[in-house]
Design goal:
The structure holds two protein chains of two kinds. Chain A is an alpha/beta fold. Chain A is built from 36 helices and 30 strands. In chain A, the strands form seven sheets. In chain A, strands 1, 2, 3, 4, 5 and 10 form a six-stranded mixed beta sheet that branches. A five-stranded mixed beta sheet of chain A has the order 13-12-11-14-15. Chain B is built from 18 helices and eight strands. Among the domains of chain B are: 140 residues, Rossmann fold (3-Layer(aba) Sandwich); 141 residues, Rossmann fold (3-Layer(aba) Sandwich). Classes of the chains: A alpha/beta, B alpha/beta.
């Protein structure tokens, strides 16, 4: 008898084979983290039914350490899959297996190879489960729903956390569930292919294995379509790893003995732990008593209530909250409910309830806030909309006037503000990587079969909370997996998760090293803080007592109501839909491609009963107002226009292609002129697009590289189809020395990405690829060196010719930079004349690409401010000392621009950072210090593939709101 | 605030007598010898051994969390040491290396200084160990004779690492190779304290003795999976950085080849002139490296000869290693471990260490190019190359890392059994 046990991250699988290798017994079940107990029970079950003696092997990521410790052979799971496939499905060329947390691709023929996803990648079962939970569906229901899909949205496929940042807003905008479900499957497919195939084509007989691919026909179909094959999902597709382990087993074990050893091991706990949250019951009670004091006065809200009321609606990422207050700012009514996909019907039913229960209701104002602010405002004709940061601050300030620090942890976002002299002096918002902590707790509790409250309670008295680190929820997940394997109890995991959420907030979002950095009067709020374990963990971690209002989860709505009350004139009657209109309220949602310009925005259009529409997903106002942005106050737009004006001229010598990626966004004028002068017709790739990215994504070797670099693959792929004589993309260790820094390097990725292209893109096998190391920082040497390089492929090129071309190139580059700065000066002048704010949107030259900046530049101009680039002002300051080594040309501009902003009253800097840009871990701190020392706010926008600008919009609006408040204070 | 950061304490010559210098532990064997040589020069120093979760926690607390893992660990290790109360804070200094390249690593010293101020250790001076003339007022005073000595000690260290790595998996009496390494480290440290062992004459005597000692350890050379480890320099060598990678591989019954530290030194020297050759420079700049490299070639030859004569595998001489890059990666790729990392992978594959762990901190910029970016090309040329890139990070879990390494090992083991025994 052979037994194979496969212990994965979420399920346990087991097969028993007899001598003829037929399956006598098999099981596939969720283990709910009771890994050791489940395995023990399974082995005993088998021993009882089939006898003690068996050739046993264990496989699966959660089975690894366990197998060793009980003396059973371990088979790596991908390897086991291959053993099974060779036996059961001969003739297979490629296997795609998706498990709970890992994705694998195995190439069996033509050079066998096995690949697993890197640590920072989703696209797996747990991700699909998480998304299904988000859609309030089971995985099966999601599969069924996806079949009804009419279209798909772009969802970031970097990892589950990122994808969630795209999915949540789609839900909140009212996109069709079927379409979202299908989009999620597409994201999984993209992630798997991009992350694992890495340029190797998947063809022939493809086998689909693992839970997600077995259960979802839609997912299989998506893979079929993307790969252009018809793959099969074989019989026992869930059991391949277990089968492989059974085939591989070569040592006889006594099953009961193994079970006994497991039992012993289960009792030992070997994971990394931290001190408990509470030492004893008294401590807990004192804690409860202290927090019970923080409450807001409430008033009865009878059926005959007729005094004016103010309504605040916070349509958050995972919940909808409504608060009604009287003129004295006391609470009359609250409502807090999970956002079931579409917030609009929920808000409607609450409003309906208010009208029904209070016939004499006099609504003086309605204010909306949160992710769904605009939608809710448009749907119900609310009076005001307020950015959520301001709403939260308003509420906290009302609660504790001397508040100097606010931290809000909601389901998806964390927001922190530092308050100085009654005004917001600094805003910290989490970036994508640390988002979703709050709802992660909830999802996790549900996955283990608990209510979130119950789950949190478990952790309060846990004796050895698991240390789970502070990265993202995906990593937390795998830390939990390890802890479970090491025998951690559910209670200790629960406590560990709460602590981890807090650590994320403190170390990743606020980046505070001591309580003094926060302030003395701290208000904590957001639904997550109802969780006492989280609250306690926060106090313990920072070593301070904080105030948590009893309406912690309603602060946004309460703040919105206060905001409305402050704005409303006395006797005002709200513009809210009246009883009749509310009763007749209808909402229809459809989506379409805008098509009014090249952006082809995916619009979601909500139409309401009164015929009004609400459009979201647009990057500019054109689909709303019909008018295009003139770009007159947008230096990004001007730069794009300049770059795109370079066209191929007459071809005397050949055709050269330049990829419009990374540093070409600045050096295109240089190289275009250089090669044109040499008699080449110079072509460059177009602005990046989603399609261009997808066409190149299959050859990306490192999925954690920054998005701008990953786009290079698409650009080269594009050029390779033009029938060019060569693609030119030089490696450049050094950049131009602008005299602002100690050295003038490019970052390693900009400097050497051509090497990655040369090493991974099959396109360059058909088109010559020139990627020599070139230095334009030494003009004289450059002429000599480039001549030698070009002569290799174009032997007739003369030295003198190259010298003249180089001179022209340097001149054109200088001219280009001068034009940018001149236009920058003009925009600044115009903005000042019109009394507008000026935002220095500081990134790198390639952040001008709309696919990279996702239209953030136009988002800013739409809000009435002017946008200039960092290089338009960086030349206005002299070199100055920095506390870090100032050694990269592009980043030196950033420091200089920050410095310059400090001297200009109406100018503020917004720092664009690409996810994965390691250099920015250093530059962002330095830039922040420069700005703060000059009394300026620091705003960082971290961008990646994510196209949804919800979080960015909130951040920018918060900045504008804070600036306005500062101005008002000064006035 | 800004004032505080720029007015950091300098390491003055007088501090040589008054201060104890703490050294972060990157490559345990080589650094032990380097510490001894600093002591011989009249410094008081200590190689930090503290590890554990506190180190990483402190790093996370005081350094931007997206900064690379080595910076986090090194700074965390320093802070943990200063917190321990073992040191007189007014008479303690820290030393950190600075390469001066285009990678983030050149900035570690600044991050360390910032962290010290934040953690309340503003008075502790930081010494920069570099060869690029950075930090003139706080640099470690380098003299040619001292540099010459350091190079010898690195060679000794590399030799001891190679000897133990090639003996330990096969020894019949467990612990013999480890004991031999410890014995020789003691002997060398003692000699270094007496300013001996660095001359060519002494090396010619000592190196063969060391090799002979290891060669005399009884072994049973059964075929084992041979694994090479390359990567970002800190996580490649430091057990703290790579979750005890060497030990894990040993527990999986592998022979591990960790290419020597000297390669990195030669790589840095080489790049100086290569830069001038690529982008222009005067005669001295274009050829300076060649002279320096030639100067140390004798020692390299000695090391290689010693290994070979005693039946051990020896690394390629640097001048041969350089040639491996041809057609794969440009020699101008000089940030981080650059072309060296790629060449080391090729050398390992050619030498039979075809199973390779390419270790890097999560999000390591240079390794996107010279590590992960080159694997495809190497595989095309050497289909047997079985390379797995592993990312290290404060919250990357051991189970995920080891699972991937185990997959690589499973493939390696399968090939081992398929291959005819020779």
């Amino acid at each position: 008898m052979r037994v194979g046990l496969d212990i994965g991250s979420t399920t346990i699988k087991c097969v028993v084979l007899d001598e003829a290798e037929t399956i006598r017994y098999s099981t596939y079940e969720r283990h709910f983290s009771h890994i050791v107990e489940k395995s023990e029970e399974l082995l005993r079950r088998i021993a009882e039914q089939f006898g003690d003696c068996a050739e046993l092997a264990i496989s699966g990521s959660a089975g690894m350490g366990m197998a060793d410790s009980v003396g059973v052979p371990f088979v790596q799971e991908v390897f086991a899959t291959r053993v099974a496939a060779n036996r059961l499905a001969p003739g297979t060329d490629c296997i795609i297996e998706l498990g709970g947390e890992d994705a694998k691709i195995l190439f069996l023929t033509g050079g066998s190879e096995v690949r697993m996803n890197g640590s920072c990648a989703g696209g797996t079962g747990a991700f699909i489960d998480q998304m299904a939970t988000l859609l309030k569906m089971s995985a099966d229901e999601m599969d069924t729903a996806a079949k009804q899909a009419e279209k798909t949205y772009t969802i970031a496929s970097r990892c589950g956390v990122f994808a969630k940042s795209d999915v949540q807003p789609l839900i909140n905008q009212g996109a069709r569930t079927a379409d979202i479900a299908a989009s999620i499957y597409h994201a999984v497919v993209n992630q798997t292919i991009a992350g694992l195939a890495q340029g190797r084509p998947i063809t022939g007989n493809v086998l689909y294995l693992g839970g997600p691919l077995t259960f979802s026909g839609c997912l299989r179909k998506c893979f079929d379509e993307a790969l252009g094959v018809i793959g099969t999902c074989p019989e026992n597709s869930l059991l391949f790893v277990a089968l492989g382990a059974a085939f591989y087993a070569d040592r006889t074990s006594n099953l009961t003995e193994v079970a006994d050893r497991l039992h012993q091991r289960g009792a030992s706990e070997t994971y990394r732990s931290q001190p408990p949250l509470f030492d004893n019951q008294e401590q807990y009670e004192a804690f409860l008593a202290r927090h019970a004091k923080a409450s807001v006065p409430r008033m009865p809200f009878g059926a005959d209530y007729a005094a004016p009321v103010h309504i605040g609606i916070d349509s958050g990422s995972t919940t909808v909250k409504v608060v009604v207050i009287d003129e004295e700012q006391r609470i009359l009514f609250t409502d807090y409910r999970p956002n079931l996909g579409n917030p609009v019907p929920l808000i409607r039913s609450v409003l309906q309830q208010l009208y029904d229960e209070h016939p004499a209701l006099h609504v003086a104002s309605v204010t909306t806030t949160g992710y769904g602010e605009d939608l809710a405002k448009a749907a119900f004709h609310a009076d005001y909309g307020v950015v959520e940061t301001v709403a939260h601050f308003t509420a906290a300030r009302h609660f504790l006037p001397q508040v100097d620090f606010i931290i809000d942890i909601g389901g998806q976002d964390m927001k922190c503000f530092k308050i100085d002299q009654g005004a917001i002096s600094n805003i910290f918002l989490n970036e994508a990587c640390s988002s979703g902590c709050g709802s992660f707790l909830q999802t996790f509790a549900q996955a283990l079969g608990y209510e979130v409250k119950e789950f949190a309670k478990l952790g309060l008295f846990a004796d050895r909370p698991v240390d789970l680190g502070s990265r993202c929820t995906v990593f937390m997940n795998s830390s939990v997996k390890q802890a479970q394997k090491d025998g951690a109890s559910i209670a200790n995991i629960s406590a560990g998760l709460s602590i981890s959420v807090v650590k994320n907030a403190i170390y990743k979002v606020i980046r505070a090293s001591s309580p003094e950095a926060l302030g003395r009067n701290i208000v904590v709020q957001g639904g997550t803080f109802y969780n006492e374990a989280v609250l306690r963990a926060f106090e313990k971690e920072m070593g301070v007592d904080v105030i948590r209002p009893d309406i912690a989860g309603l602060m946004g709505a309460y703040g919105a109501a206060l905001y409305g009350q402050g704005k409303a004139a006395s006797g005002q009657v709200s513009s809210l839909l009246d009883r009749k209109a509310l009763a007749a309220f209808r909402q229809e949602t459809r989506s379409e491609i805008c098509g009014k310009c090249g952006n082809n925005c995916q619009l979601t259009i909500n139409t309401f009963a009164d015929g009004e529409t609400f459009i979201s997903g647009n990057r500019c106002d054109r689909p709303v107002t019909g008018e295009a942005d003139s770009g007159a106050l947008n230096l990004y737009a001007y730069k794009r226009k300049l770059i795109l004006s370079y066209k191929p001229s007459e071809n005397r010598r050949g055709k050269i292609g330049l990829p419009l990626c990374l540093n070409f966004w600045e050096l295109l004028p240089f190289w275009h002129t250089f090669f044109t002068k040499l008699g080449f017709a110079v072509y460059h790739s177009p602005l990046s697009s989603r399609d261009l990215y997808l066409k190149g994504q299959g050859t990306i070797p490192s999925d954690t590289a920054c998005f701008p670099a990953k786009l290079a693959h698409g650009h080269v792929q594009f050029l390779s189809r033009l029938g060019l004589d060569a693609i030119f993309y030089p490696c450049m260790t050094y950049n131009i020395d602008e005299g602002l820094s100690d050295n003038h390097y490019n970052c390693p990725v900009v400097a050497y990405y051509p090497e990655v292209i040369a090493g991974n893109c099959p396109e360059i096998k058909t088109t010559k690829f020139i990627y020599d190391y070139v230095g334009i920082h030494r003009p004289k040497d450059f002429t000599k060196k480039i001549h030698a390089i070009l002569r290799r492929d174009f032997p007739d090129i003369g030295k003198e010719e190259v010298r003249r071309a180089a001179d022209a190139a340097y001149a054109e580059y200088a001219n280009h930079m001068a034009l940018v700065r001149k236009e920058g000066a003009r925009i600044i002048d115009q903005a000042r004349a019109e009394g507008r704010r000026i935002i220095v949107l500081a990134g790198r030259p390639y952040h001008v690409d709309p696919e990279i900046n996702h239209g953030i530049d136009t988002l800013i101009t739409r809000s009435g401010a002017a946008v200039v680039t960092e290089d338009a002002v960086s030349n206005r300051v002299d070199k100055f000392p920095t506390t870090v080594l100032n050694q990269w040309t592009y980043h030196a501009r950033l420091y200089a621009a920050a410095r310059y902003c400090c001297t200009q009253k109406d100018m503020d800097l917004v720092h664009l950072v690409s996810f994965g840009c390691g250099v920015d871990a250093i530059t962002s701190d330095e830039t922040q210090e420069i700005l703060l020392s000059g009394g300026k706010l620091y705003t960082q926008l971290k961008i990646d593939e994510i196209t949804n600008l919800g979080a960015v919009r909130i951040r920018l609006r918060s900045l504008f709101a804070a600036l306005e408040e500062q101005d008002e204070k000064e006035a | 605030m800004e004032q505080e950061y720029t007015n950091y304490p300098r390491f003055t010559p007088e501090m040589k007598k008054t201060h104890k210098i703490l050294i972060p532990n990157m490559a345990p064997v080589q650094f032990q010898l380097l510490a001894a040589s600093m002591e011989q020069q009249g410094y008081t120093c200590e190689l930090l051994e503290n590890c554990g979760s506190e180190v990483c926690e402190l790093g996370l607390k005081y350094v931007h969390n997206d900064t690379c893992y080595p910076a986090l660990l090194v700074i965390g290790q320093f802070l943990d040491a200063l917190n321990s109360g073992k040191y007189d804070l007014d008479h303690t200094a820290l030393i950190i290396t600075q390469t001066g390249g285009g990678c983030r690593a050149s900035n570690y010293i600044h991050l360390l200084r910032k962290a010290l101020v934040k953690a309340g250790y503003g008075q502790v001076p930081v010494v920069s160990l570099n060869f690029s003339g950075l930090e003139k007022d706080s640099g470690f005073p380098m003299t040619m004779p001292f540099m010459r000595k350091l190079l010898s000690y690195i060679y000794y260290g590399d030799l001891l690492v190679a000897l133990r790595a090639q003996t330990e998996p096969y020894e019949t009496k467990k612990g013999a190779a480890k004991a031999a390494q410890e014995k020789w480290l003691d002997i060398l440290c003692d000699k270094i304290h007496h300013d001996r062992s660095w001359s060519m004459r002494e090396m010619k005597k000592l190196m063969p003795q060391m090799a002979a000692d290891f060669a005399a350890i009884p072994v049973n050379r059964v075929p084992k999976v041979k694994v090479g480890v390359v990567g970002e320099i800190y996580v490649k060598y430091s057990p703290l950085g790579n979750n005890d990678l060497e030990q894990f591989l040993a527990s999986q019954d592998c022979e591990v080849n960790l290419p020597g530290l000297m390669g990195f030194v030669q790589y840095c020297i080489y790049n100086y002139s290569e830069t001038a050759r690529l982008y222009g420079g005067n005669f001295l700049q274009r050829h300076g490296s060649d002279w320096l490299l030639r100067g140390i070639e004798n020692t390299e030859t000695l090391l290689i000869r010693t290994l070979k004569q005693h039946g051990f595998h020896a690394p390629l001489p640097f001048r041969e290693l350089v040639k491996l890059s041809k057609g794969i990666i440009g020699m101008g790729n000089k940030m981080g471990e650059g072309w060296l990392l790629t060449c080391e992978m090729i050398e390992l594959v050619q030498a039979g260490y075809e199973n390779i762990v390419c270790a890097q901190p999560f999000g390591c910029l240079p390794n996107h190019i010279c590590g992960k970016g080159m694997i495809n090309k190497i595989r095309e040329l050497y289909p047997t190359a079985n390379i797995t890139p592993i990312d290290y990070d404060p919250s990357a879990t051991r189970v995920n890392q080891e699972n991937r390494i185990k997959l690589m090992l499973a493939v390696g083991r399968e090939r081992l059994t398929e291959r005819p025994v020779h």
